[in-house]
Design goal:
Order of helices and strands: EEHHHHH
Helix content: 25-40%
Strand content: 5-15%
Number of strands: 2
Low-confidence stretches: 1-21
Strand order of the largest sheet: 1-2
Mean pLDDT: 83
CATH superfamily: Cytochrome c-like domain
Length: 144
Amino acid sequence: MKKIIIALLSVSGISLLLTGCGGIEADLVTRPADVSAFSSEDQDLVALGKQYWSDPSLSSSGALSCNTCHMNNAAFKDTFKNSYPHFVQMTKAKSGFEEVDAEQMVQFCLVAPMKTDPLPWDSKKLAALAAYTEHLQKAYAESR
């Protein structure tokens, strides 16, 4: 069976499970055509997204947050300096996507590294995390 766990690694004190299959179904990380995004003032969403970014309750284990992998811009590849949508190696390897937008990237991280369910597409939490991700991306690009 291809979905057996093949390794348990420790990277900077973070345990990561690698699976033999590794595929993520596209519909888990793609907004349905009939669902609109949550709408609010961007600055409100960025501030809220910053709070969620460090919230380990988002992960299935309760131990991982977005900040676990991305503290001080860690784990961002060179393509992160490009505005969304852009190419992300992890999403290409696991789902075949040539590029993703910020919402898809948030959903992908929830499903893959954080091993939890994606957020509802019309949720304030997803909108906030996507807004904060775009905020980080712009700051990252300016620093390069």
